[in-house]
Amino acid sequence: MLDTDGTDGRGRALRGHGITFTIGRGNDLVAEATRQLARSLVGTDVGAMAADMGGTYMSFTTDSQMRWLGPEKGVVHLALSAVMNAAWDLAGRHVGKPVWRMLADMTPEELVDVAELRYLADVLTRDEALELLRRVQPGKAGRIAELEADGYPCYTTAAGWLGFSDKKMVRLIHEQELLGLTHVKLEVGTDLEEDVRRCRLARETIGPDRALMIDANQVWDVPTAIGWVRRLAEFEPLWIEEPTSPDDVLGHRKIRDAVAPVKVASGEHCHNRVMFKQFMEAGAMDFCQLDAGRLASLNEIVAVLLLAARFGVPVCPHAGGVGLCEMVQHASMLDFVAVSGTREGRLTEYVDHLHEHFVEPVRVAGGAYQVTGEPGYNTEMRAGSIERYRFPDGGYRLLVAQRRAVMGAGSMSSNSWFSPAIAQTNE
Ligand SMILES: [Mg+2]
User: Fold this and answer.
1) pLDDT above 90: residue 158
2) What homologous superfamily is domain 2-96+393-422 in, according to CATH?
3) Distance 186 CA to ligand 1 centre (A)
């Protein structure tokens, strides 16, 4: 959180809320990096910051000592995402607009100034970026009206997790259909024959017209991915997601060539815009699944949206994590209104859990994210949730730690009898 000494338009304390996403161990590393980065913002004038978000971003990524720890990847970049997401939330609250609208209302010149285009000039110059944005200027007001009427289409992975029984999967697919969700995604990659069976059942349940997607979560090497996806091709998946290492640009290209017409989706582990540049220039990705807690906030997201528009790659953001849905809806809405100018062939992931922890959670209806009118980035968590889950001293965490301490004391004594165990480490 970035606290200020001011108030918002409603007289409430003006504060920016930022989120990145971790899944357990390592929280402390990211939290400490976040603390160290955020310190440099103390004393910053909020109005000046909101008017120069590009410059604010650059002040972090040109710090050579912190660059050494990345650059622009790993723990420091996740931390920068948290800090800049808070800065964007604060900027949106300061100007009284949701951030998608704050950005969509900018002139092409202002929006390009926000985008972090460093290292992209070989495929996208500032002038080319301006040209792309100017091309979609006409019709912006009409697209905002369309968005307010229909929202932005989404899909969910809720039915397709590994380990669900057939009965549960079929029930969840039917429930999603009732909610207007037309696409179904299954996790695959553990057991080929089991995947064949589940994909067959899913395809029979959804019929020939709805889309099926499959997600391997990086489990295969390139040849295995090709063989596995070819075996599942009879069920006509729209895409295979993360078929191999998220850094393997050329491997993705080989898979894409070998499994067509199945398309390749990737990007939730793409750590910065330069990776996206390579994926797109190499023709290695059909769908761009950028992540709002991994890229360092909207400065990089706008750059990736511009790259995607330049290469004609549809952006379908990743949202499988707490708070990600709340943020990526802004990226998709901005893309439609002011960057790509279309919703055609695009949809944003939606995961229907843990929204109750947010003050202004996403609203999904008719298979679409509904427009948010609240100022900021929808990242503020409820005070009660923060109290309970705060790292490292929230009530829930202390309870878990106590339980682990009790269980750990029993298991240590039986293990250590058989062979020596490393007792401690020293720097
Ligand atoms: Mg995924």
Assistant:
1) no
2) Enolase-like, N-terminal domain (3.30.390.10)
3) 10
Tell me the domain boundaries of the chain. Answer: 2-96+393-422, 126-369
Residue 79 has pLDDT above 60, yes or no: yes
Q: How far is the CA of 53 from the centre of ligand 1 (A)?
A: 30
Got the DSSP string for 321-384? STTHHHHHHHHHHHIIIIIS---TT--EEE--SSGGGBSS---EETTEEPPP-SSB-S-PBPHH
Q: pTM for the full model?
A: 0.94
The secondary element (H helix, E strand) that includes residue 253 is: helix 249-259
| Three state DSSP letters for 48-70 | HHHHCHHHHHHHHHCCHHHHCCC
CATH class of 126-369: alpha beta
Characterize the bridge pairing of strands 2-7 and 13-16: antiparallel
C-alpha to C-alpha distances, 185 to 154, 182, 216, 241, 414, nearest whole angstrom? 12, 10, 11, 10, 43
Distance between CA 372 and CA 383 in Å, rounded?
A: 21
pLDDT for the residue 409: 54
Ligand 1 centroid to Cα of residue 27, in Å, is 21
Distance between CA atoms of residues 37 and 44, nearest Å: 13
d(CA 346, CA 364): 16
Which residues make beta-bridge pairs with 358? 381
* 212 CA to centre of ligand 1 in angstroms: 14
Q: How far is CA 349 from the centre of its chain?
A: 9
- Kind and range of the H or E run holding 7: strand 2-7
